[in-house]
From TrEMBL:
It comes from the Eukaryota. This is Cadherin domain-containing protein. Signal peptide: none annotated. Coiled coil: none annotated.
Length: 1238
C-alpha cells in the first residue's frame, strides 16, 4: 500500500512584486505581472481589497506544467473613478490568496498607479501683436485647452510675466491668456515670453506663449499745444501753474527740453478726464529762484520746447509753450525832499548828504543824478537796497547858488523811476579852534622818519592848510580824513618822509624853530595864519651792553693787554670819544673798536693785586655837546696755585742705562707766579724746568727732567725703589700758598739685546738622521747681567734638541742625534723648538725655532696597465672592481675624487695592512645603473693617497658595458570602447634610471589601427574603431638608446557598443481618428543596427521597422486594422514608446523615449436645433416638389472636420417623406398640413 504526502503550494516567483507604472487613465483590461506557484491544482484570487477592478488569470500553457503561472490583470470592469490615483494608496497592495483545495497561501502584489499628467493643446508658439500703451481693460490674447482625464486643472503665468499677463479659466477645458487691466505695455520691451504652468496638483506641465512686441502708436497733441501762459511777474519765486495740454497715448511722458536746466517742468495729471488722453500741466518749479526767471536774462515771451515720448524715440513729438514774463519795476523809498545845510567851499572829500532805498524784486538797480547837478553830486550804492547821495570830492560849492536841486533817476534796465532832492549850502570863513599857536614836544635831531609833532583844528570843513615859512620840505600839514566833528577839520603838523639827518640837525638852525601855517577855504579874504614852534634837541650818546660788574680775573702780572669787556656807545649824528678816568687809567684803558664799539682792557705789564680790588673804572664818553659817564667794576681774586694736570703723575719706563738728560713728564698749575722744585729725595739727578711759553699764560707749565749730572750708578734699577717717588713743591711767593705733589719715575731694568736669531725654519732634517748636528746660532747681549738659554724642558722637543753656550754673548742650536732623539715625520712633520733665556733677575724671554722634517711619499704597487676592470650599465648591486696596494712606512689614507663618487664608485675600503703595504678595495654601486651613454663608455677613477704634505695621484679606468634599454612595465592591454573617436593615452612606458633620458620609442606596427607612440606614451590618435571590423589590435613598440634596442607588445581590445540613437524628437502628435498606417519619425544611429524594437511596455499600435530603400529605421503607426483597435484619446491620450537598437552581436545601445500625443476628436454640434425645448416647424399643406427645402441645419466642428448630416430616426418613405442632402431637409409627398418635429 502506498502512502502519499500532500505538499501545500508555495510561491516560486513573482510574489511579492510590483507592477510597472500604470496611468490612472487606464480603462481597459491590462496585464500587470506574472507569478508562479508549485502545485498544479492551485487556484488563486484577490482577497483584499474586495474589488472587481483587479483579477487573477491563469496561463493555459505554463512553461512547467508542475508550476502553474498566473497573471494579475486590470479587469475589463475598470472605470476612471475606480483606478483614480488620488483615491487610494499608492502603490496599492493586492492580497493574493492561492489554495490547492487543502492549504491556502497569501502574498502581496503592489499596483504602481501613477497620475496621468494634464495635456496642453491649441497653444501656439506666438500670438498676434496688440497696440502698446495703457491697457484699460483685460484683453484676451489667446485661448487654449488643458485636458486631464480625472483631475481639475489650474493654470497660471510664471513670474516675472505675471505682473502684466494672466491666465483665466474659460469653459472647461479652455483657458484664456489675457493682458491685465491697468498694465502698460511698451513696443520697446517686447516680445513678451510668457511661461504658462498648468497643474492637476500632482503633475505640472508647462508651455511657452510669445506675445509679439506691441505695435507702437505714437502720441499726438490733442489740445493746449502750442500754448501760452498769462503774464507772470519775474518776482515770482513760488511754484505756479502756467497752463495745460493733452496727448493721445496713455503711456506718454513729457518734459521741458529747452531751455536746458530751466525753472520750468511738466507734471502729469493723475486722473485725466479720458484715461486714453493723458493731461499735462506746465509749472514753474518749486526750485525756481529770482535769477532763473529774471525778465532780463531770457527771451520774452520765453518759448519752452516740450518733448513727449511713449518710450520709442522714433515716436517722440515736440511742441512750444510760451511763458509771458513781465519785469517788476523798482520802488524808491526814504528819499526826503530837502536835506540838511552844508558849508560852501571846496569839498575835500566825498560826503554823504542822505541815504535812501530802491527795492526791486529781481533786478540790479542803478541810480544816477541828472545834469547839471551831476557835476557836484553823485549817487553811490550802499548795502543793498540802500544808496547814498554824496557831494563829490574836490568840487566847490557856492552859497550864492544854493539850494542845489538834485534830480535822481533809478532803473532796472527796463523801467526808470524818478525823485527830487534839494540840498541847501551855507557860506562860512575858517578860524583856528585849538592848537595854534602851538609847540611840539622835544624832537631829537636823530629823527629821520615821518613824525607827528602836533594837531590843530579850524571851523570850516573845506579849509586847507600848509607851512609857508621857512620854505622847506622837512615839515608838512596833513588833514585828518575822519575828524571828530566833520564841521571842524583837524590837521596834523608832521616831519615829512623827506627828512634827513642834515636837514634837522640841532647844530644847524634856530632852536626852537617857528613854523608859519596858512589856512584858507578858497576865499582869499578868509585866509588865516598861525605859528607852531618845533623844539629840536641834540641826541646824547647812549651806553649799551656795559654791565655794572665784570667777570672775576686773577691777580698777578699781566704780561699782555687783556680785554675785560666790550660795550657800545651810540650817537645818531655825532662822533663819540671815550676814556678811563684817573687813577684807574694807570692800570686800565678804553680802546675804540669798530664804531660804535669800545673795549675795557687791563694794560700789558701791570700787576693786579687782589688786596687792592675790586677796581672801579669810571668811563667818560662825549659827542662834543653831551657828556655821559658809566661805571664798570672789575673784581680781582687771589687764588693759590693748584695742580691742573700731570700731578700726581708717572714717567714712561726709563731704562737704567740712561746717562743723558731726559724729559720724564709735564704738569700744569693755576697761578702764573708759581715756581716749583724737587724736594725729595735730596739729589741732583732730577730737576724741574719752567716752560717759557705755556699754552695758557694763566696756567704755567713745568717739565720733570733727568738732569745732565746723571750717572749709570745713580740710576741703576737694582739700587733704589721702583718706581722712585719724587716730591714736588710749588708756591706763588705767598708762604701760605705752598702745594706739593708726587711724580713717580719708572726705572726699568735694561733687557738683553737679541741678534742674529734665525728667521726661517731649518729645512730639511731627515727623520732617521743619527749623529748630533748644529742647526743654527744667535747672540743675546746684556750690559750688566749674565744670560743663560735652554730648550723648554716641558716640551717634547727637549728630547731631540738643545742650546749650547758659545763665546759670550753667542748661543748654538743643536740636534741631539739618535738616540736620545726619535724623530718621526708621520707623527710630527715640523718641530717648533721653544728656547727660554733669562738674566736670573727680571728678564726672561722665549724664542721659537722651527725644524722641518723630510718625508717619503707612498707608492702605488699594482695599478693595471692593460686589462681594465669593467661593469655592465645594468648592474645595480654592489660589485668589487679591483684590489689596490699602496706602499708606505705608515698606513697612508687613500680616497677617491668627487667625480668618481658621483659616478657610482664607492669610497675605498681598507683591507689587509702588511707594512709597508696597505690594500684598498674598489667597489661600484649605482642603484640607478651605470649610464653607458652618459659616461661615454668609461668612468675615470682618480685615486689619491697620502696627506696634505706628501700625496700621490693615479687614475684607474673602469669600462662601462652597454645594454639595451630595459622597460620596467612591459606588455599590458587596454579596453577601448568603439565609440571613442578622440585621442586617448593608453600607456606610459617607464625605463630603468640610466635609460630614462636617452631611450626613444616608435610604433613599428600599429596593426592597421589609429595608434602611435608620442614621446614615451602609447596613444590612440583621432579616428574611429569598429568592433565588428576588428576587435583586437596587437601593437609592436621598439625602444633604442641609439646602439641597442628592445621591443614590447601592447594589446588593445575594442569594446563593442550598441547603436545609439543620436537624433530623435521628444514627441509627435497623432489624430485619434487616424486609421491608416502613418510614418511618425526616422531614427539616426551611430552605426548600422541589426534590430530596433520597443522595450517594455510595448504597444501594438506602433512598430519600428527598417526601410531598405532609404536604409533607415522608421517609427510607424501600424494602422487600426493591424493594431486591432482604434486610437482613443479617452483611453490613451499619449503613448511613451521606449525605443532601443542592437547590433548583430546583440549589444544594445541606450534607450530613448518617444512620446506620441493623441489629439482628442470633439463631436460636431448642430447650431440651430435643440432637444430642450424641442425645435418645431409648422408648414401649410401644399404640394411640394422634390427639391423644396423644408429646413436647413447648420453645424460646426472645433477641429474643422467635414461634417456629415443624416436623420437617424427617419427612413425616407411615405410616412416620413424627407431626406437630408447634405444639410437641408427636402420634402417629398407632403399633401396635408402636419407638423414636423425633430
Amino acid at each position: 500500500m502506498s502512502i502519499f504526502t500532500i505538499q501545500p503550494p508555495t510561491f516560486v516567483s513573482g510574489i511579492p512584486a510590483t507592477s510597472p507604472s500604470i496611468s490612472d487613465s487606464t480603462v481597459i483590461a491590462t496585464s500587470l505581472g506574472v507569478f508562479t506557484v508549485t502545485d498544479p491544482d492551485t487556484t488563486c484570487s484577490i482577497t483584499s481589497p474586495v474589488t472587481s477592478v483587479y483579477e487573477i488569470r491563469p496561463l493555459t500553457s505554463p512553461a512547467d506544467p508542475q508550476k502553474p503561472e498566473f497573471q494579475v490583470w486590470i479587469s475589463a470592469a475598470v472605470t476612471q473613478a475606480s483606478i483614480d490615483f488620488n483615491d487610494q494608496a499608492v502603490p496599492l497592495p493586492l492580497t493574493i490568496t492561492c489554495t490547492d483545495g487543502n492549504t491556502a497561501i497569501t502574498g502581496t502584489f503592489s499596483v504602481n498607479i501613477v497620475d496621468e499628467p494634464p495635456v496642453i493643446s491649441a497653444l501656439p508658439a506666438s500670438g498676434t501683436a496688440i497696440n502698446d500703451g495703457l491697457q484699460t481693460t483685460a484683453a484676451i490674447l489667446h485661448t487654449f485647452s488643458v485636458t486631464d482625464s480625472d483631475d481639475a486643472v489650474t493654470c497660471s503665468v510664471r513670474t516675472p510675466q505675471n505682473a502684466r499677463f494672466e491666465v483665466v479659466a474659460a469653459t472647461s477645458p479652455a483657458f484664456n491668456i489675457r493682458v491685465k487691466a491697468g498694465a502698460t505695455l511698451s513696443a520697446a520691451d517686447g516680445p513678451h515670453v510668457i511661461n504658462v504652468d498648468c497643474t492637476d496638483s500632482v503633475n505640472t506641465v508647462s508651455s511657452t506663449f510669445t506675445q509679439p512686441a506691441c505695435i507702437n502708436t505714437p502720441p499726438t497733441f490733442v489740445s493746449g499745444m502750442p500754448g501760452s501762459s498769462a503774464s507772470i511777474s519775474d518776482a515770482t519765486v513760488a511754484p505756479t501753474l502756467l497752463g495745460k495740454f493733452t496727448t493721445t497715448d496713455p503711456d506718454t511722458t513729457c518734459s521741458v527740453t529747452l531751455p536746458v536746466a530751466s525753472a520750468y517742468e511738466v507734471r502729469k495729471v493723475t486722473s485725466p478726464v479720458n484715461p486714453q488722453q493723458p493731461e499735462f500741466e506746465v509749472w514753474i518749479k518749486s526750485t525756481v529762484t529770482q535769477t532763473s526767471i529774471d525778465f532780463n536774462d531770457q527771451a520774452v515771451p520765453l518759448p519752452l520746447t516740450i518733448r513727449c515720448t511713449d518710450g520709442n524715440v522714433a515716436s517722440d513729438i515736440t511742441g512750444t509753450f510760451n511763458v509771458n514774463i513781465v519785469d517788476e519795476p523798482p520802488v524808491i523809498t526814504l528819499l526826503h525832499s530837502t536835506g540838511s545845510s552844508i558849508n560852501d567851499g571846496l569839498q575835500a572829500a566825498a560826503a554823504t548828504l542822505h541815504t535812501f532805498s530802491v527795492t526791486d524784486s529781481d533786478d540790479l538797480v542803478t541810480c544816477s543824478i541828472q545834469a547839471p547837478e551831476a557835476t557836484f553830486f553823485e549817487v553811490v550804492p550802499a548795502t543793498s537796497p540802500a544808496f547814498n547821495i554824496r557831494v563829490k570830492a574836490g568840487v566847490t560849492l557856492v552859497a550864492a547858488v544854493s539850494p542845489y536841486v538834485v534830480n535822481v533817476d533809478c532803473t532796472d534796465a527796463v523801467t526808470v523811476v524818478n525823485s527830487t532832492f534839494t540840498q541847501p549850502v551855507l557860506d562860512k570863513p575858517p578860524t583856528f579852534v585849538t592848537g595854534i599857536p602851538g609847540n611840539s614836544p622835544d624832537v631829537s635831531d636823530d629823527t629821520v622818519i615821518a613824525t607827528s609833532l602836533g594837531k590843530f583844528t579850524t571851523t570850516d570843513p573845506d579849509t586847507t592848510c600848509s607851512v609857508t615859512s621857512p620854505v622847506t620840505t622837512v615839515y608838512e600839514i596833513r588833514k585828518i580824513a575822519s575828524p571828530t566833528d566833520p564841521q571842524k577839520p583837524e590837521f596834523e603838523v608832521w616831519i615829512s618822509n623827506a627828512v634827513t639827518q642834515a636837514s634837522i640837525d640841532f647844530n644847524d638852525q634856530a632852536v626852537p624853530l617857528p613854523l608859519t601855517i596858512k589856512c584858507t577855504d578858497g576865499n582869499v579874504v578868509n585866509d588865516i595864519t598861525g605859528t607852531f614852534n618845533v623844539n629840536i634837541v641834540d641826541s646824547p650818546p647812549v651806553f649799551t651792553a656795559l654791565p655794572a660788574t665784570g667777570t672775576n680775573i686773577f691777580d698777578g702780572l699781566k704780561p699782555a693787554t687783556e680785554t675785560l669787556h666790550t660795550f657800545s656807545v651810540i650817537d645818531s649824528d655825532d662822533a663819540v670819544m671815550c676814556s678811563a678816568r684817573s687813577p684807574e687809567n694807570a692800570l686800565f684803558e678804553v680802546g675804540a673798536g669798530v664804531a660804535p664799539r669800545f673795549t675795557i682792557n687791563v694794560k700789558a705789564g701791570v700787576t693786579l693785586r687782589a688786596a687792592n680790588g675790586p677796581y672801579v673804572i669810571n668811563v667818560d664818553c662825549s659827542d662834543g655837546v653831551n657828556n655821559v659817564t658809566a661805571k664798570f667794576t672789575q673784581p680781582v681774586i687771589d687764588t693759590p696755585p693748584t695742580f691742573v694736570s700731570g700731578i700726581p703723575g708717572s714717567s714712561p719706563n726709563v731704562s737704567d742705562v740712561t746717562v743723558t738728560q731726559t724729559l720724564l713728564g709735564k704738569f700744569t698749575t693755576t697761578d702764573p707766579d708759581t715756581a716749583c722744585s724737587v724736594t725729595s729725595p735730596s739729589t741732583t739727578v732730577y730737576e724741574i724746568r719752567n716752560v717759557t711759553s705755556p699754552v695758557n699764560v694763566s696756567q704755567p707749565e713745568f717739565e720733570v727732567w733727568i738732569s745732565s749730572t746723571v750717572t749709570e750708578s745713580a740710576i741703576d734699577f737694582n739700587d733704589q725703589a721702583v718706581p722712585l717717588a719724587l716730591t714736588i713743591r710749588c708756591t706763588d711767593g705767598n708762604p701760605v700758598n705752598v702745594i706739593t705733589g708726587t711724580f713717580n719715575v719708572n726705572i726699568v731694568d735694561e733687557d738683553p739685546v737679541l741678534t742674529s736669531f734665525p728667521t726661517t725654519s731649518y729645512q730639511f732634517l731627515e727623520d732617521t738622521s743619527v749623529p748630533a748636528l748644529q742647526l743654527n746660532s744667535f747672540s743675546l747681549k746684556d750690559s750688566d747681567d749674565a744670560i743663560s738659554c735652554k730648550v723648554d724642558p716641558a716640551t717634547p722637543e727637549a728630547t731631540h734638541f738643545e742650546i749650547r753656550a758659545g763665546t759670550v754673548p753667542a748661543f748654538q742650536i743643536w740636534y741631539k742625534g739618535r738616540p736620545p732623539a726619535s724623530l718621526n715625520y708621520d707623527v710630527t712633520p715640523v718641530h717648533n723648538v721653544t728656547i727660554i733665556c733669562d738674566d736670573g733677575n727680571v728678564f726672561s724671554a722665549r724664542y721659537h725655532y722651527a725644524v722641518e722634517l723630510e718625508n717619503s711619499p707612498p707608492v702605488f704597487v699594482n695599478l693595471p696597465a692593460v686589462t681594465l676592470p669593467s661593469i655592465a650599465e645594468s648592474v645595480t648591486s654592489k660589485t668589487l672592481l679591483y684590489t689596490l696596494t699602496v706602499s708606505d712606512l705608515g698606513v697612508p689614507p687613500c680616497y677617491l675624487s668627487d667625480t668618481a663618487l658621483a659616478a657610482g664608485i664607492l669610497p675605498l675600503e681598507q683591507s689587509t695592512v702588511t707594512p709597508p703595504n696597505t690594500q684598498y678595495l674598489v667597489y661600484a654601486h649605482n642603484p640607478g645603473g651605470f649610464d653607458f651613454e652618459g659616461s661615454s663608455g668609461a668612468v675615470n677613477v682618480e685615486i689619491t693617497c697620502g696627506d696634505s704634505v706628501s700625496t700621490v695621484k693615479e687614475t684607474l679606468i673602469v669600462n662601462i658595458i652597454n645594454t639595451a634599454p630595459v622597460i620596467t612595465n612591459p606588455g599590458g592591454s587596454s579596453d577601448v570602447a568603439e565609440d571613442v573617436s578622440g585621442t586617448l593615452t593608453l600607456k606610459t612606458l617607464d625605463f630603468v634610471t640610466f635609460d630614462t633620458s636617452d631611450a626613444t620609442c616608435s610604433m613599428t606596427s600599429a596593426d592597421g589601427g589609429p595608434f602611435a607612440v608620442t614621446g614615451n606614451q602609447i596613444v590612440k590618435t583621432a579616428g574611429a574603431l569598429d568592433f565588428e571590423t576588428k576587435a583586437t589590435y596587437n601593437l609592436d613598440v621598439t625602444c633604442t638608446d641609439g646602439l641597442l634596442q628592445t621591443t614590447d607588445t601592447y594589446v588593445v581590445k575594442v569594446q563593442n557598443v550598441g547603436p545609439k540613437i543620436t537624433s530623435l524628437p521628444t514627441a509627435s502628435t497623432l489624430d485619434e481618428w487616424q486609421t491608416a498606417e502613418k510614418q511618425l519619425t526616422t531614427l539616426t544611429l551611430t552605426e548600422d543596427a541589426a534590430d530596433c524594437v520597443q522595450t517594455s511596455p510595448t504597444y501594438n499600435e506602433f512598430n519600428v521597422k527598417y526601410e531598405p530603400a532609404t536604409k533607415v529605421w522608421v517609427i510607424y503607426y501600424v494602422s487600426e486594422a493591424v493594431a486591432g483597435r482604434s486610437l482613443s484619446y479617452d483611453t490613451n491620450p499619449f503613448y511613451n514608446l521606449h525605443i532601443q537598437c542592437s547590433d548583430a552581436a546583440g549589444v544594445k545601445g541606450a534607450e530613448k523615449i518617444f512620446t506620441v500625443h493623441i489629439n482628442d476628436n470633439k463631436a460636431p454640434t448642430i447650431d440651430n436645433l435643440s432637444r430642450s425645448p424641442i425645435t418645431k416647424l409648422s408648414l401649410v399643406a401644399k404640394d411640394f416638389s422634390a427639391t423644396d427645402t423644408v429646413f436647413t441645419a447648420t453645424g460646426s466642428d472645433v477641429e474643422n472636420d467635414n461634417v456629415i448630416y443624416s436623420m437617424l430616426s427617419c427612413t425616407p418613405n411615405a410616412t416620413c417623406p424627407f431626406i437630408m442632402s447634405p444639410s437641408r431637409l427636402f420634402s417629398r409627398h407632403f399633401k396635408r398640413s402636419e407638423s414636423f418635429t425633430r
